[in-house]
From TrEMBL:
Residues 517-537 have a biased composition (Basic residues). The chain crosses the membrane at residues 492-512. Residues 453-486, 517-552 are annotated as: Disordered. This is Uncharacterized protein. The keyword Metal-binding does not apply. Residues 538-552 have a biased composition (Basic and acidic residues). Gene3D superfamilies: Immunoglobulins. It comes from the Archaea. It comes from Thermococcus argininiproducens. Residues 464-483 have a biased composition (Low complexity). The keyword Membrane applies. Keywords: Membrane, Transmembrane, Transmembrane helix.
Length: 552
């Protein structure tokens, strides 16, 4: 009886196999990557792609095909039940509905003899319907066999202090490189690496890396602090990881700067007077909150340092305007150098120029009497004005002549003074025989230079022009008319003329003096000579020749 039952079951199985259909199921996973000579364990998600529900699903076998559909050996598959128990053959799932996903735990061993490449693993399952019908289920899984144990994922860079991804790094900040490396092996893999900045072929801030990577994902983090004194400019970050099977290289370009720039430099005035101060304005743009120093240097002719000051100021992110005062300086062109620094590090600098103008000055006042009558005299005043600047200046000359409690003359002139000495002539009538007071004022930029004095015109005995110098010559500058010649020059010419007249009179007197009477010249008596003295040769006779005959 027992033998008959066994025969019946075998017949039923054979009958069901003959009438069974082959179904193809899929997995959510695209592939399984395994290192040659190692193993890989994990889970697969199987999907019931059939439109049928299975009461029982059993695992029957597996096989591996290469790219040419040839079955190969050297790859071993182990599967486990949902409770973790190993399963060679037998019931894998029960009540697997259509479209339902089931999890399959696996472990795949790959022999070292298996060459790297792509293979297909086929798992063969039997599925029994509620009617007792059998369906053969095949599940293909792509296997990628490799001898490279590490998989490098994309790296990225952040600024540690700001936790942002940016291509602009500030000195004093820290570059942090994040990367993930997946170790496919089930044992640690040692790697070495380096990270540094490169500019014009030169390396900066090199950092060495050495570590063992455990199986699975490994997160790597490398920090490169940027010093404050690193020169601003464009740098390339080089991040390299090396091991026995290969090299991973990551690079990115950054612009490194201190983040504080002098964007503008200006002055309140481009021209000031010699006793006037000026105001300097500096505009800074900062990408950080920091305390910096600003230095102001003022240079004159031949780069002579005239003023120097250094101050500290706290600036915040954004624009900051610094205002500082330039003291009054001597006349001339001035150049301002402004420098922004942090410690001994120069961040930025700029320059600007301006002119310091000298006040025009009254240098000298001369006058001469042009004509006289009984009560009044016509007098011409010659005022010498000086302009110490290298350009023309506009000023105003005012004058007033007065006696006590009465103004005789007053007036003013607007003048444009050329560089150097300028001359102004003023002609007016003044009373004779009394003391007259005068005031000359030169006004420039609301500053007044005043010269005052007095004079008294007396009718001279000889009717000659006389020149007298006023009480006080002062410094200043102005020009309208230039006298021809100046009163000082006329005095010198007068003295020369008088001297020439005196010399002429002396010569005339000497010429007219009667000459003394001439005495008759007496011939000296000849000396007696001894007849025995020296012999003297007689003179040759003189023969006269005439071109014409002598007249009778």
């Amino acid at each position: 009886m027992r033998r008959k039952l066994i025969v019946l079951i075998v017949l039923l199985l054979i009958t069901s196999m003959v009438s069974s259909q082959t179904l193809l199921f899929s997995t959510l996973e695209e592939k399984i990557v395994v290192i040659s000579g190692d193993y890989k364990e994990g889970t697969l998600t199987l999907i019931n792609n059939a439109d049928k529900d299975f009461q029982i699903v059993t695992f029957r076998r597996y096989y591996v095909l290469d790219s040419k559909n040839n079955e190969i050996s050297g790859i071993t598959l182990e599967i486990y039940k949902p409770d973790g128990e190993p399963l060679s053959t037998g019931v894998l799932y029960t009540y697997w509905k259509s479209g339902e996903e089931r999890t399959l735990r696996y472990k795949i061993y790959v022999n070292e003899s298996v060459k790297p490449g792509t293979y297909t693993l086929f798992m063969v399952l039997w599925g029994f319907l509620s009617s007792g019908d059998l369906r053969v289920i095949q599940i293909p899984v792509t296997l990628e066999i490799t001898d490279v144990p590490l998989m490098f994922k994309e790296a990225f860079v952040e600024v540690k202090e700001r936790s942002v991804k940016t291509n602009r790094i500030l000195t004093g900040e820290t570059i942090v490189i994040y990367s993930t490396v997946h170790n496919l092996k089930n044992s640690p893999v040692s790697i070495n690496g380096t990270a540094y900045l490169e500019k014009n072929g030169k390396r900066y801030l090199k950092t060495d890396i050495a570590m063992n990577l455990t199986p699975g994902d490994n997160s790597l983090q490398v920090e490169i602090p940027i010093p404050y004194d690193l020169q601003a400019g464009e740098y390339r970050l080089i991040y390299k990881l090396e091991y026995s099977k290969g090299t991973y290289l990551f690079s990115k370009v950054f612009y490194i700067t201190f983040g504080v720039d002098l964007t503008a430099i200006s002055l309140e005035k481009t021209e000031v007077m010699e006793d006037e101060k000026n105001t300097l304005y500096l505009t800074l743009f900062s990408e950080r909150d920091i305390v910096v120093n600003y230095t102001i240097e003022v240079y004159g002719v031949n780069n002579e340092l005239l003023h120097n000051s250094t101050k500290a100021i706290k600036i915040e992110k954004g624009s900051t305007i610094i205002q500082d005062e330039i003291p009054s300086l001597s006349p001339g062109s001035k150049k301002i150098m402004s420098k922004i620094s942090f410690g001994k590090i120069t961040l930025d600098q700029g320059s600007i120029s301006y002119n310091v103008l000298a006040y025009p000055q009254i240098e000298n006042i001369l006058y001469k009497e042009i004509s006289l009558n009984e009560n009044k005299a016509t007098v011409q005043f010659s005022i010498t004005l000086s302009n110490a600047n290298s350009k023309e200046v506009v000023t105003k000359l005012s004058y007033r002549f007065f006696r006590p409690n009465e103004t005789i003359h007053k007036g003013s002139r607007d003048l444009s003074l050329s560089p150097g000495e300028n001359y102004v002539n003023i002609t007016l009538e003044l009373p004779i025989g009394e003391k007259i007071y005068y005031e000359f004022s030169l006004i420039q930029n609301n500053k007044e230079q005043k010269i005052s004095g007095d004079l008294e015109i007396k009718p001279p005995a000889p009717p000659t022009s006389t020149f007298s110098q006023s009480s006080t010559p002062l410094t200043s500058t102005t020009n309208t008319t230039i006298p021809t010649p100046a009163p000082q020059q006329r005095n010198i010419l007068t003295y020369i003329a008088i001297l020439l007249i005196i010399i002429f009179l002396v010569l005339l007197i000497l010429y007219l003096k009667p000459a003394p009477s001439k005495k008759r010249r007496e011939r000296p008596k000849p000396k007696r000579r001894s007849p025995i003295g020296k012999f003297k040769r007689p003179k040759e006779p003189e023969i006269k020749e005439y071109r014409e005959l002598p007249k009778k």
